[in-house]
Amino acid sequence: YRRQEAETGDHTTMATTNMIMRATQRIIYLTACLAFLALGSNVQAQLSPRVYTVNYAATAPTIDGMLTSDTEWSLASEGGDSWSDWTTNSLDAANNRFVALWNNEGLYIQQQVDYQGWQDRGSEQWDSLYENLNFYFDPNVDNEANENTQLFSYSTDGYHLAINQPLGETEILADGTATAGSFGEFYVNSFYNSNVQPTWLPGIEMKQTTSVEDQTGIMELFIPWNSFDKTDPSSPDIDPLLDEIGLFHPEAPVEGEEWYFNAVRFQTNNQIAAWNRAPSAVFASERPHGILQFVGGGELNGCDMNGDGNCDGLDIDTLAVAVRDGDNNPLYDVDQDGSITDADRVFYIEEILHTWIGDSDLDGQFGTRDLVAVFVINAYEDGIDGNATWASGDWDGDLDFTTRDFVAAFVDGGFEAGPRAAVAAVPEPSSLVLLMLGFAVIGRRVRLI
């Protein structure tokens, strides 16, 4: 009996010793993992984050998940490629890449990938273990650093949007309906996946097309600025003494503004590709993210009023329509007086294009060639309201070609005066009026014939 008791005691002691050893090993393992994560964060912090320039486009691309036009995203800058494989730190083999544009309504992103492993998942519910594309945004209103100085320092905020990518065509619309799983959250002073808010982006529009045959995936996304409205300082749920407001940015950015950003794609083969190399598995909070730098917009957007990449008569027409429709887009306030009137159109012609009212072909001068050009188009007093353009004689911005346009050109005084910046003699008013009236009569007779 005593031998059995002794043996039992020995077994108990051995079991306890083994348990302690296993616990000690586990602690050592976890400590090593934490040290590795901290080291990864410190190493990454020494690298400069990638910067993507987001250009302004007054004309928004169509969110259809297809490459429907060569010009639709032509204003976007290059550089959203060369993603890193998170598991190997090598260049991503699937060639993930993105482009982005912005305007006063919101942010537009197109992402593409060369991949043939698409599967028909058969469910519209979010599944984190399935193919998914992730975007992380931090408007950084509170000017925090782009990395943590300690592993568990609660100093980062962000928005997180994730979208499953099944085979075929899928979409998520602003009304909340979806044919693909999606997940959204925002987190404040904590790691991501810590403050789940599934409806934080109620206004998004997304459409994507994936194909095994073409080995491609195309995703297009629109996020309105007013979706970035968390941590509103006026909200009764926010205590200014305790809470930060780094996520509250419900309006369009300004020229040169920078947001922290990253794009990450998880594949079912355990590959993780990130645009800006992530330091660890908790990259969204440990950072670093890359940077979105917004350029263009307002008076700093140059002379491209319609977002087609050109500065021509169509931009003058865009301003004329904006004045007629009472469009309050700040982009059209080119003289920066706080209101959008015909004075903006005139300022655009005279101070931005540096030409004369009446210069229908925009060669920098107003002469007989311009008069001939507009009458050939034959829109003079044609009885059709709102069908005239700058090129066809609408020089006063009312969208018609009448004698009022001749008056506007006459008052500007540029007929046969050479380039606007040059010093040139202006013809006698009476001669100019007679000449224009003569062209008007000729134009009417041509139309009658």
Q: Unreliable runs, pLDDT <50, ≥5 residues?
A: 1-8, 20-46, 422-430, 445-449
What is the string of SSEs from the N terminus onward?
A: HEEEEEEEEEEEEHEHHHHH
CATH topology of the largest domain: Immunoglobulin-like
Shape: elongated
- How many β-strand runs? 13
Q: How many angstroms separate the termini?
A: 130 Å
Outline the biggest β-sheet. 13 strands, mixed
Percent of sequence in beta strands: 15-25%
Number of domains: 3
**Helix/strand class:** alpha+beta
Key traits:
single chain, 449 residues, alpha+beta, Immunoglobulin-like, 3 domains, 13-stranded mixed β-sheet, 7 helices, 13 strands, 25% helix, elongated, disordered N terminus, disordered C terminus
Helices and strands in order:
Elements: H1 2-45, E1 51-56, E2 84-85, E3 97-102, E4 106-114, E5 132-138, E6 157-164, E7 168-172, E8 182-188, E9 205-211, E10 216-224, E11 258-266, E12 272-274, H2 283-286, E13 290-295, H3 313-325, H4 342-352, H5 368-377, H6 403-412, H7 429-448
Parallel strand pairs: 1-3, 1-13
Antiparallel strand pairs: 2-12, 3-4, 4-10, 5-6, 5-11, 6-8, 7-9, 9-10, 11-12, 11-13
Helix pairs in contact: 3-4, 5-7, 6-7
Describe the fold and architecture:
With 449 residues, the protein is an alpha+beta fold. It folds into 3 domains: 1-46; 48-296, Immunoglobulin-like; 301-448, no CATH class. Helices cover 25% and strands 19% of the residues. The chain has helices at 2-45, 283-286, 313-325, 342-352, 368-377, 403-412, 429-448, and strands at residues 51-56, 84-85, 97-102, 106-114, 132-138, 157-164, 168-172, 182-188, 205-211, 216-224, 258-266, 272-274, 290-295. Strands 1, 2, 3, 4, 5, 6, 7, 8, 9, 10, 11, 12 and 13 form a 13-stranded mixed beta sheet that branches. β11 (258-266) and β12 (272-274) form a beta hairpin. α3 (313-325) packs antiparallel against α4 (342-352), α5 runs parallel beside α7 and α6 packs antiparallel against α7. Residues 1-8, 20-46, 422-430 and 445-449 have low confidence and may be disordered.
